[in-house]
Amino acid sequence: MLSVLAELQRELIMANANDALASARARGRVGGRRPKLTPDQAELAQRLYDAREKTVQQIADMFNVPRSTVYGHLDREKTVPRQPKKTAAAKPGKLPAGYLLPGLRAGTTGPDLLFPGLPQRRRAPPRAGKR
After folding, report:
1. What confidence category does residue 30 fall into, taking pLDDT thresholds of 50, 70 and 90?
2. How far apart are CA 130 and CA 61, in angstroms?
3. 105 part of a folded domain
4. Are 101 and 95 in contact (CB under 8 A)?
5. What is the largest CA-CA distance in the chain?
6. pLDDT tier for residue 50 given thresholds of 50, 70 and 90
7. What pTM was computed for the model?
């Protein structure tokens, strides 16, 4: 019985909130935070970035905002990335699958891959007791 009342109360709260938002929109109010850069500043930032005159950090320093703010104001459709995307490279210290150097075991990584002649460090024996 209490769950039905709680559900009814929740529906009333949501209906009142939606009515308040609709009336605020009718009065010309818009929700959300105000943009940090004005439209003129955002346009200037876009032009400087597209012309490659300044880096994003330099543009951010001009307007005293973080780089993330500048990236948020750049037009994603018109903006060309500065650097090509990096291709997936093999992890350092690991060989590609199926590739072995002569005299090395599969899965060999780290110092024994770089310096195969060095003696390996001894591991401590496992502890007796609970596992």
Report:
1. confident
2. 59
3. no
4. yes
5. 79
6. confident
7. 0.45
